[in-house]
Amino acid sequence: MTRFLSENNVFYHGTYNEFSRFRPLSHFGSIYAAEKVVSKGVQKLEVPDGGISVKPVLTGMKPHIIPANLKLKNTYELQDIEANHDKNFYCGVLLFHFLKDLKYKKLNLAYDYIAKEPFEKVSWNNVKKELKSDVLYEVEISNAYFAEMMDRYHLFLQRMIHYFESIGFDGFHYTNHYEDAGHISYVPFRPESIIRLDTAVGESDNSKVIKNDNILALSGERDLSNDEQCTLRFEKIYRMESSAEKMFLLSANKKVLLRPSSFRQMMKEKAYYSKVLFSEVMPKIERITNQSRYGYHGLSHTQQVGLFGIELALSVRQDPLPVILAAGLHDCARVNDEYCEQHGPRCEPIARKFLADNYPDLLPVDVERIVKAVKEHTVGRNSSDLVSACLWDADRVRLSWEMGFAPEFFSTPYGKKLGALTRSKQEKYIADQERFLIENRIKTRAQIEYDKIMDIKQNLIGTNFKVR
Known about the structure:
Layout: E1 2-3, E2 10-15, H1 31-39, E3 42-46, E4 52-56, E5 64-70, E6 75-77, H2 87-98, E7 106-108, H3 109-115, H4 117-120, H5 124-131, H6 145-166, E8 171-175, E9 184-188, E10 194-196, E11 221-223, H7 226-238, H8 243-252, H9 263-288, H10 299-315, H11 320-329, H12 343-358, H13 364-375, H14 386-403, H15 413-419, H16 423-439, H17 445-461
Parallel strand pairs: 6-8
Antiparallel strand pairs: 1-6, 2-5, 3-4, 5-10, 7-11, 8-9
Helix pairs in contact: 2-7, 5-6, 9-10, 9-11, 10-11, 10-14, 11-13, 11-14, 12-13, 13-14, 14-15
C-alpha cells in the first residue's frame, strides 16, 4: 500500500537532542505521539549491529517537539513496532517486497546486494567510498571496530533508500499503534523532504541533494534460508489486509498473528482464542501443574490471567497463542500462596518440556519469548517484549484491583486501563466477561456460579498445592 501526503499537513518529531539537520529515516507523527515519545524520558540510539539501544536521558536535557511540513509524494507502508525499526526489521521489509507473491520461491539477488553485501563482502574502504557518493550519512572518523560497523550499517540503509527511491518512493509510513493509535506516522528518506517550522532552532541544510535514480536490477536468484523463511512468514502475516484471508488463517493456524480490522472481528478472535484457552490449553496445563483447581493461585486464577492476556495481546497486535501458553504456565511451579519470587525461575524446565511435548511446531523464537515471560514474571517490572508485557500486565490486574493501581508496573496502554478500573467498573467488567463466556458457549451460568463458590471456599481453607 502506498500513500500520498499533502505538503500542508504539519507533523511533529519528539527528541532530546539539539541539531540543525535531521537524520535519514527520522519519524514524524501527531503532536500527541511526539509528546508521548519524550514523556518516556529515554533516548533511542543506533548500535553497531544495526539494533536500537534505549537509555535514560541525562540530567538537564530538555525535550523538544519539532513541527515540520513533509514533502512526500509516495510512501511505502511499514508496520509499527514502537519506532524500533532496526536492521532486522528493514531486512524483513525487503524480503516481503522482493517476494510479493509470498510463495517462498526464489529470492532476487538484489536483496543480497542491499542487506548482506555491506556486512559480508565489501571492504571497509569501499564502504566509506560508497557512503561519500551521497550525503545521506557521514563516514565515521574513528578507526575503531564501532566505526566500521556503523559505516556498514549505514551503507545497508543507504542502499535500501536508493532502491526504494529508484522505484518511486520517497519515504515510509505506518499506522501508529503505540503513541497515538490510529494516526499515520511518516519516515522520510531524506532530510531535504523535511521543512522545519521551528525557526529558532534552525533549518536543514538543503544545499546538497544527491539521489540515485537507477533502478537496481541484479540478475540471478537463490533459495531462501530458514531464518529468512521465518522472517518472511511474520512479515506476511503482519501485512494481511483481507478479513476473509485472516479468518481463513485463523481457523487453520492457531499461531497466526492478526491485525484486527474492526471491533466485530476482534470479538471473533477473542472468542476463538478463549475457546483455545479453555478447551485445549488448560486441560494440558492441569496435568503438569502443582496448582489446585480453585484458590487464590489455583487454575481459576490462571484462566482469568489467560482471558486478560487475550485482550491485551489483541490490543497490541500480538499473536495471542504465546500469551495464552505463558499465562497457563506462569504459576505451575508454585508450592504455596505466599509471596515467592522463585516460582517463576522454577517454571523454566517445566515450561520447556511442556512446549516441546505439546507444541513442537512453535518457532524457537516464540518458545524463548514464552519461557522468558514465565521465568521473569516474578521479578520483572515491565517489558518491551509483547509476550512478557501481556503476561505481566494480565497477572497484575487482580493485584492492582486489590492493592491499588501502580502504573509503573504496567507495559501496555490497555493493561493500564484495566488496572485503573474503579470498583464499580471492575464489577461491570467481570459481568461483561461472564456474559461473553456464556454467549460464546465457553461456560454456562451454572459453571460460573459454581466456580465462584468453590474459589471462596478454597480461599477460606487455603489452596492445596500438589507435590510432584
